[in-house]
Amino acid sequence: MLEGILSWDEYFMGIAVLSGRRSKDPNTKVGACVVNPEKRIVAIGYNGFPTGCSDGELPWGKAGGFLETKYPFVVHAELNAILNATTKLTGCTIYTALFPCNECAKAVIQSGIREVVYLSNKYATSDATVASKKMFELAGVKYRRYSGREDTLTIDLRSENI
């Protein structure tokens, strides 16, 4: 492999992480990138509120009563990517910064995505993650942790460095 050239996994996970930077969530910035078998990006998403729901009117907090938190309102990055797709996702791979919760796992399976590549699994022992893994295994969806050569990627947006 040529030095300085990103692997496909590095490239697509980089796009997922960069997409997560669009999220206005002050605590969790998750992005997702869906790639078809030809290595073409077919969808991108990040965690945020549904279209038309104002960030100023819904909470981003994690504490308090259910309706005082972000949890009933946020659309996760994986689901946003699936909903943003303009083509069928059968046979695709989804790159995501965080292992999908059980609700996103259902959407991944139903959309026809066949592989999940994740960066972090910080909720590995949660019931939601255990349920996700069980459904993925039953549905034949492969999942693996990202293992690129690079721990960090730097993006220089100065035009003179192109």
Write a brief caption for the model.
This protein has 4 helices and 5 strands, in the order H-E-E-H-E-H-E-H-E. The protein is α/β, with parallel strands linked by helices and 162 residues long.
Could you explain the architecture of this structure?
- By secondary structure, this protein is α/β, with parallel strands linked by helices.
- The chain has helices at residues 8-20, 77-84, 102-111, 127-139; strands at residues 31-35, 41-46, 93-98, 115-120, 142-145.
- Strands 2-1-3-4-5 form a 5-stranded mixed β-sheet, sandwiched between helices.
- The chain is globular.
Total beta strand runs? 5
The whole-angstrom Rg is 16 Å
List the uncertain runs.
none
Question: What oligomeric state do the depicted chains represent?
Answer: single chain
Give the overall form. globular
Q: Termini separation (Å)?
A: 21 Å
Q: Average pLDDT value?
A: 93
Helix coverage percent of residues? 25-40%
Could you give the topology of this structure?
Blueprint: H1 8-20, E1 31-35, E2 41-46, H2 77-84, E3 93-98, H3 102-111, E4 115-120, H4 127-139, E5 142-145
Parallel strand pairs: 3-4, 4-5
Antiparallel strand pairs: 1-2, 1-3
Helix pairs in contact: 3-4
Primary descriptors:
alpha/beta; 5-stranded mixed beta sheet; 5 strands; 162 residues; globular
